[in-house]
Design brief:
8-stranded mixed sheet, about 725 residues, globular, about 25% strand, alpha+beta
């Protein structure tokens, strides 16, 4: 179960557990019941009457801060009204804008760095990691990319102690926060293959040089605190819900209420008659097919009828025209357009024509399929004729590489609402309105997380890599066969899975902000104990484009200028990407304590992007100590069809401590200074490693890489390199 207290952006108090008699028929003698606690709440050293008072106090502070024009000038401040920011935020733990309370969170929970007493020592995490994506937590939201939280746990346990502060400047869905909190869960830590003793000491099995396996202690059980940041308000909203206590009973109650209300109000839209012509059924999904024109005879061709093979669910490359029998392929067909008056744009508009071709429906507990009949088509016409009363976003689609690659604009889609069939738009607008007025933020997370499945991007078995009713993450492609799903079909089972989800949800463990990592002045120098980041991968994913759907419904958009991506659609080059990554790494270096570690999880198949990341790290002042792989086990759609690299690289780097910097200033540019760096650097590297029972080469100990690190250290500090490569190798 999701545990703890009420995870809501409109909370009414903390929740505690009470044991009550089991309900009849539940099979349980006792059950847990969440009851409101009006007891005092402590937050950042201030005691409040209850959690609602805490939230009111900090919301008022945030509301005042939003009036400050200088506050809005912070790099990456999202685009939207104050009320949209306040509606999402739960300060001081989460703000859908730069978080003015971060510095107090760090002061309150952090441990000041004192070079005189600092005795931190860790070797780099010298092992490849393999963790799958099939964990229920990982799949709770359809965000484009996530690092499995169990993989991140291994790094956090290795580099930190309980209570340490961890930072992730490109947090996405907040898996680093989930990982840090679960470091205090004995069962989850044990599932990683570690052993936890009664005192909380964590040991891992290691193989010694003689081949003997022994258990060696390396960490302690206990949650770590986390500061999370992302440029995208959609991402930070998801991260907040992943990392905040959730009252599962309240969520289930509210989600069921909303789905029931929408069913009562819109159920007629999903009614269909069984093939007996009498019995009413409920539509699970309707398949729409693009309609083309034969270039030879000029007659209409329904793509589903001509190219889709019944029984195999495959789409053939060539097929005969059903009218003139000419041999055709999809590229030879001509599109047919529907012209209509777009009320939201107050102008005429054209979209490619789609025709309903298949209905999958339910009668009782049995599923059936049929072709749409005249009654079904009349219901669709009735829906099209009705004006929408609920608000929905009508933003013009932003420029970007996905617009060119996925080609949705070639089908007449110029604004966000064009991605929806009229029925889907009407129902999702109603769902969103009810979710936004609900007191439980996790309900909004639930509705938002299903938003892409109701768009025209939801494909119907287009090729071997997609299945019925599947939205392909990381794309904005609108195919020729679309599955329009009903809310009951797409959301009921998802709701049940979320109710069984076990999120960490520990109060006051995470603080989240929404801004650019290129400038985070709220975070003090030398204040963070460890940093794990999963930064943008060059041009692999275009986050602000892909997040546009979620953010438009949240009424808060990404400030795209500081987005670190390569994007032909916006003329963003590799140099732009490298510059922004270098600025981000400079800020990351500044807040990290000397001698501490940074882990960069990175995926890109291009050497130029990989080299750009390394240069950005070195330019910032980090020293790379190790490079490993992280295998997520399951391919993404893009990896499958484009044969991309399937394993991610994990770069381990450290911030030189003050002792080395002080010594170097005295002997900079001399051979003594160069060798002092090498000796100090070697202490940060693995000495011995086993892989598949054999000793492995420690790449970073090879002479050419040691020379590269030494040169980078000098160049970054503007100092002449005193040794040539030949002299160094000798």
């Amino acid at each position: 179960m999701m545990s703890g207290s009420k995870g809501s952006s409109n909370q009414t108090g903390l929740f505690k557990t009470k044991i009550v008699p089991g309900k009849p028929g539940s099979g349980k003698l006792f059950e847990e019941e969440f009851v409101a606690s009006e007891g005092p709440v402590e937050c950042l050293g201030i005691t409040f009457e209850n959690d609602e008072k805490r939230r009111e106090y900090f919301l008022d502070k945030l509301r005042e801060k939003l009036k400050d024009p200088e506050f809005r000038k912070i790099e990456g401040f999202p685009i939207g009204e104050d009320e949209a920011i306040l509606a999402l935020s739960d300060p001081p733990y989460y703000t859908a804008c730069p978080n003015p309370f971060i510095e107090y969170f760090i002061k309150h929970y952090g441990k000041p760095y004192d070079p005189a007493t600092d005795d931190y020592r860790r070797e780099p995490f010298a092992a490849d990691v393999s963790e799958g994506k099939n964990d229920p937590i990982y799949n709770a939201h359809s965000y484009h990319t996530k690092v499995p939280h169990k993989a991140i746990m291994r790094y956090i346990l290795h580099y930190t102690e309980p209570g340490d502060l961890v930072f992730d400047g490109f947090c996405g869905t907040g898996m680093t926060g989930v990982a840090a909190q679960l470091c205090g869960d004995k069962a989850v830590v044990g599932s990683l293959g570690y052993r936890v003793d009664k005192d909380g000491i964590i040991s891992q099995q290691e193989t010694e040089e003689n081949g003997k396996k022994v258990w060696k202690p390396f960490s302690k059980l206990g949650a770590r605190r986390v500061v999370l940041n992302d440029l995208s308000p959609a991402a930070t909203f998801i991260a907040y819900n992943y990392n905040t206590p959730v009252d599962v009973a309240a969520f289930e109650r509210e989600a069921k209420r909303i789905l029931k209300e929408v069913e009562d109000e819109c159920g007629w839209m999903y009614e269909t008659l069984h093939t007996d012509g009498k019995t009413k059924g409920t539509i699970n999904y309707m398949v729409w097919s693009e309609v083309f024109c034969c270039p030879d005879c000029g007659k209409e061709i329904i793509y589903y009828d001509a190219a889709f093979q019944q029984g195999t669910s495959q789409v053939v490359d060539t097929f005969p025209c059903p009218h003139c029998h000419s041999n055709l392929n999809k590229k030879s067909l001509q599109r047919i357009w529907n012209a209509y008056y777009d009320e939201s744009l107050q102008a005429s508009h054209q979209l490619v024509r789609y025709s309903p071709v298949l209905i999958n429906y339910q009668v009782g507990g049995t599923r059936h399929e049929k072709r749409p009949d005249e009654r079904d088509k009349s219901i669709l016409k009735r829906i099209e004729s009705k004006s929408l009363t609920e608000w929905y976003p009508t933003h013009e689609m932003p420029d970007g590489e996905r617009k060119g690659k996925d080609g949705y604009h070639l089908k007449g889609i110029t604004h966000l609402h064009h991605f929806y069939f009229p029925r889907a738009l009407a129902v999702f607008a109603r769902l969103s309105k009810k979710a936004n007025s609900c007191s439980n933020a996790f309900v909004r997370f639930f509705i938002q997380g299903n938003g892409l499945t109701v768009t025209k991007m939801n494909r119907y078995r287009e090729n071997a890599y997609s299945q019925v009713n599947q939205y392909m993450s990381g794309t904005m492609f609108v195919g020729s066969l679309i599955s329009e799903v009903s809310p009951a079909y797409s959301m009921t089972n998802k709701m049940k899975r979320l109710c069984k989800l076990r999120l960490p949800g520990i109060n006051a463990q995470t603080a989240i902000m929404t801004q650019s990592t290129t400038s985070i002045p709220e975070m003090a120098d030398n204040s963070i104990d460890y940093i794990f980041v999963d930064p943008p991968f060059g041009n692999n994913l275009h986050y602000s484009e892909l997040n546009f759907f979620w953010e438009a419904w949240l009424k808060l958009l990404t400030q795209r200028e500081p987005e670190a991506v390569m994007d032909k659609g916006r003329n963003r080059t590799l140099q732009d990407y490298q510059r922004l990554m270098a600025e981000s790494f400079q800020e990351i270096l500044r807040v990290l304590k000397p001698g501490r570690w940074l882990t960069v999880e990175f995926h890109n198949s291009r050497n130029s992007v990989w080299f750009a990341i390394q240069q950005a790290l070195e330019h910032a002042g980090f020293v790379v100590a190790d490079v490993r792989t992280l295998d997520k086990q399951q391919e993404t759609y893009k990896q499958s069809i484009q044969k991309l690299v399937k394993q991610d690289l994990v770069i381990t780097a450290y911030k030189p401590n003050g002792g080395l910097e002080q010594r170097f200033r005295l002997v900079a540019g001399t051979e003594e200074g160069a060798w002092d760096f090498v000796r100090t650097h070697l202490k940060k590297l693995p000495v011995f490693g086993l892989k598949d029972g054999h000793a492995e080469v420690i790449a970073e100990r090879q002479n050419y890489l040691l020379f590269d690190r030494m040169v980078a250290f000098h160049v970054q500090r503007g100092v002449t390199v005193p040794l040539s490569a030949a002299e160094f190798y000798a």
